Amino acid sequence: MTLLAEDLLLLLLDDESGKPLIGSTALPRALAGAVLLELALGGVVRPAGEGEEVKKGRLVLSDDAPPEDPILAGAVARIRDSKPLKPESAIEKIDQRLREALVQRIVDRGWVRESNGRLLGIFPTTVWPAVDESHERAVRDELGAALMDGATPTERTAALISLLSAVDAAPKVIPDGDRRAIKKRAKEIADGEWAGAAVRRTVEAVNAAIMVAVIIPATAAGGTS
């Protein structure tokens, strides 16, 4: 099974140009949030509640063996090697070189290819246009069923939608529908009761941390215009 972060990265790369659909600040945060959310869905991590040894809201790791997937295992190690972290701090820890690892995975799977060039003949650029769209198409079909047809999403599809909603990218990923309706439906799913209480708290914290990465650069740009 692919990671949520792999599917999210595929969705957030334009198939033709290979360029990310969202800003360079938001993308790494969204991918790290997807990893943290994957760990929460698997019962590996959860926010502490009232009356626990760890301060409420800080992340608690389970005593189970770490996940076999090296990206998830690396994220667990970073969380474990730190004092109890808030979800937003954990996202910053997980973010380190994550995008490079995920890009290499989807290249190795044959879904995208790496293309290097130069902007204005001077500045080096790298993009990742699609090669084999079959997996992404299947993921996108599930998203479309939930966002356009009113189908009840699976837990993983709902998690993807919540991440897309946090970076305001659901209409970009499903461009053929009514933009406003898709955005509204994505928010409804993101705020819905598709996960247990512990995962729900993680979802809310992850989405809040990702939104900060989107809002702050936009606010700074607006202040300098």
UniProtKB/TrEMBL annotation:
It is a peripheral membrane protein. One of its GO terms (molecular function) is phosphatidylinositol-4-phosphate binding. It is found in: Golgi apparatus membrane. Its main location: Golgi. One of its GO terms (cellular component) is endomembrane system. InterPro entries: GPP34-like, GPP34-like_sf. It comes from the Bacteria. Keywords: Golgi apparatus, Lipid-binding, Membrane. This is Golgi phosphoprotein 3 (GPP34). It comes from Rhodococcus maanshanensis. The lineage of its organism: Bacteria, Bacillati, Actinomycetota, Actinomycetes, Mycobacteriales.
